[in-house]
UniProtKB/TrEMBL annotation:
Its EC number is 1.11.2.1. Keywords: Heme, Iron, Metal-binding, Oxidoreductase, Peroxidase, Signal. Residues 39-67 are annotated as: Disordered. Belongs to the chloroperoxidase family. It comes from the Eukaryota. SUPFAM superfamilies: Cloroperoxidase. Residues 1-24 form the signal peptide. It is an enzyme of class 1 (oxidoreductase). This is Heme-thiolate peroxidase. One of its GO terms (molecular function) is peroxidase activity. Residues 77-306 form the Heme haloperoxidase family profile domain. Its cofactor is heme b.
Amino acid sequence: MVSKPFALLTALLLTLGSLSTSFAFPNLQAPNGNLLRRQEVEDSTASQAGGRPGQGVDPPPPPGPLSFTGLKLVNDRDHPWRPLRNGDIRGPCPGLNTLASHGYLPRDGVATPTQIIKAVQEGFNMDNGAAITATYLGHILNGNLVTDLLSIGGKTPKTGPPPPPPAHAGGLNVHGTFEGDAGLTRADDFFGDNHSFNQTLFDKFVDFSNRFGGGFYNLTVAGELRFSRIQDSIATNPQFTFKNVRYITAYGETVFPINLFVDGRQTERKLSMDHAASFFRDMKFPPDFHRAAQPSSGAGIEQVIAAYPWLPGGNADGQLNNYVVDPTSADFTNPCGLYTFVIGSVQELYPNPTGILRRNLIKNLGYWYAGGFASAGCTELFPYGQL
């Protein structure tokens, strides 16, 4: 059974989406592994939020729900699509890429958690709790906690000086956190490019939509495609890992397009291939696109899991077709297990923080916990004390 906090988590643990430049950091998914592993919204807005490189920022609390949470035209005059400029950053998540290309996020692809939470609510009508939980998870693991800036793609000096190793502020492309193996339209990290749109995989997306969804991507297609992509990785990627954070995001990303990429005026939750290509490939809202008619997150994930129940694990000993279940991994039955796992991962990244970094870690961990894990009854942990 999928708990409410996990439904929230899987939502923007994917605009967070078909979550991939990888850096030389080990995979976060190893249970006890070493974790070495803005010009619009507008430019003026971006310059006011977040710190300049080298400047410490006191991170504000996350924003609350929108004042109006209904159907709304979002591909509007105030948010025109624009092509990438030299230096603009995009990453593995088609949702965030689209928001940046339309100016809901800074067009350069570097944003604060506050900007991301506001953007995914305004542009997609993402549930507020889901937005907070997933955004702060990505920020804590991959953002610059001193400047309060996160790259939606690869590592960049635009987020400021990196923290001391083993932390990296590497952005959402870092393998094994948001980005992970068996993505819907991105290749596994093992093959060298885990963040760019992959036409071959999108062709498979279209093929499965034709075979199982009558030309549309729906929950039936999602279940079939999720299982098939797992099998692909088992057979071709000797380093395939599918556990902890990635186990959760992999199932979340399958329902994300159905809940958030389908025009809110449609009563049937199914995504056309033209609209899928617009988001996944072109990073663009379809013409006259209206966001979801009500706040949405992980609806339907139970159906995807039920189609082909699968346990977390990975290929063992660097061998193909050698999938071994990991009983220590977090899964959908125990949200507090994921919370505890990530806290341990953060402690590996930041073993002895001091000053502004320690303060900001304490605040960001608190925001993340309150976003979803508090309502699950998880005991809040304070690895760096309290303010």
